[in-house]
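A student in our group prepared the protein record below, which I am reviewing. I have pasted the whole thing underneath without changing anything:
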Amino acid sequence: MPAVTRDDVEWVGDDGALGEIFCLTFVKRVDEAEALSRLGALPDTLRRRTLQEAHEAHGSYEAGYAELAFALDLGAWTVLIEPDGFQGSLVEPLTALSRGTEAVSVQRHDYADHGFGYAVDGTLVTGFEPTWPNRRWGAEPDRLLEQMRAAGLDPDVEGDYVSGAYVEALLLAGLVTGAVPHPDALARELLSAEIEPWFSAASPPLSHGPTDPEMVAALRAAPPHLLRAVAARETMRLATVLGLEDTPGLTEAIAAAEHGEPVTVSPDSELGAHVRSWLRRSRQASWSLNDPSARSEMSDDERDAAFMLGWFADALNAALWPEPHAAARAALRPLTQGPPLLRDPVQEAAVLRVLRGEPDPK
């Protein structure tokens, strides 16, 4: 196979099909449909589309500002293409994509950070912002040094700032994988789907959770059964506050998770349909703030209520996660860091007592 060269990646510097915000994630020995599924594809939306359709849906209130991903077979690797997206660049989705294989991610975001990540079998090996290649993290930050230098991302060059570094980052990805997409391939219809990370195999975000030192210490020391109990009961408290406690399938799913049973909520289940509607409504509330044509579609009260649905969906996702420490940490985020409606100092103190195994003072 011919080596990937800079000529093979220069096109990505243009503001053409992919534009100023995109993510390309390469997954080894995983076919197109499976790669999309790992990213959280909604099965009933799986079909062939053009990138232009994705741009239009992402900018549409009526379409729920949908996030779409495309998959393209490159031989030994499949590349996932997220126009206007970034899920593959986040640690949790990237490591989930890499389970049992390898995954490489390149992010261009002209209004935030660019990104590069390389993960193997659920572990982030090397990650860095390509603009500053000397600042790396992961289990083996130096694993790709030789390829980095060959791609023009030499961390030892004085000044270390690389302008437009997503081009070099894509070249680095090509040196790791041996393949990059050709721009002509992006001009045709590709297999695609709306993605909803809630339904992916990614763990709750590592950054989510309480920051108070006492709560952090209690979470770290608590046994699994108390962590699961706290996650489940706190999620049901939120459901009651928001009037969602009678949602079909909700109580049963949370009870099963509390008992340590594996719980899978499929996108086409009754509970899954409610989750999708909550997330869609929350996304509409957020994105319409920057959409002059749709800002008036919601009143202030409706927008606030929609944001609460997003907070609840995230807590529910956490409570159903099988690893109890991650589940409890992320499920407690609304209580400890959420909007006033979801916070409760008395409940926070009660959670702390439960985690410590202390008796109820009543």
Q: What stands out?
A: The first helix runs from residue 32 to 38. The chain has a mean pLDDT of 95. The two ends are 72 Å apart (CA to CA). Residues 113 and 129 are 7 Å apart (CA to CA).
